[in-house]
Amino acid sequence: MFICQSMNDYQAEQLKSLRMVRRQLKALTDAELAALKAEIEDYLAFRSRVDDFLAAHFKDTCTEKCFSGRLSACCSKDGIIAFFGDVAVNALVSDEADLDRLEWAIQYPARVDKCIFLAQGGCVWRIRPVVCTFFLCDEAENRVFGDNPVAAQWAKLKEIKKHFTWPDKPVLFEWLEAFFIGRGARSPLMYIHFSPGLARIRKNRSMFSS
Fold first, then answer.
1. How many CB atoms lie within 10 A of CB 159?
2. How far is 205 from 105, CA to CA, in rounded Å?
3. pLDDT tens digit string along 131-147?
4. Tell me: the pLDDT tens digits for 23-52?
5. Rounded-to-integer distance, Cα 184 and Cα 178, Å
6. CA-to-CA distance for 99 and 106, rounded, in angstroms?
7. pTM of the model
8. What is the mean pLDDT of the chain?
9. Nearest-angstrom CA–CA distance, 102 and 107
10. What is the C-alpha to C-alpha distance for residues 111 and 97, in angstroms, rounded to an integer?
């Protein structure tokens, strides 16, 4: 399969992982695919909650200070940490055209100085990487939160996020990696299984539970 020769290692990792997930999903039966989608329903509901919160409290601030002003400091060049779970979830809720656009964006970024996923119309992911969604710059937080009690709501959402992503106990993102590993897949984005730090957290969890 063609890969743009001018891509850097970051782009190549993202493209390899996306194409791997696409191949694996196409090989599933309808029943297997439906079962996999059922596994992410709670996470999608949580992400919808987070999106509603951000739209209610940060949309105006972030549009004014970042998107309209083309600052987008959070969307830095090759700076987005996308977990394998992010790739799998996004693929499960996207159609082929969505994923084709994502592949194109990875290979041919709209801007050389910004995130490869940031096209002219905004982010090309259907479900953005969790790191992106939970990034709020200091200026935005200071403007919106201050003494506002909604700050406690945001703190609660960040804690709930860990129940899907942080492997001090079995979590969805770990399960998704294991599902694809069980089918022979390997990705540099499988941090929960292969990153030394996160693998150590999983090992310590096993020790304390035994």
1. 10
2. 38
3. 999 988 887 888 888 87
4. 999 999 999 999 999 999 999 999 999 999
5. 10
6. 11
7. 0.89
8. 88
9. 9
10. 21
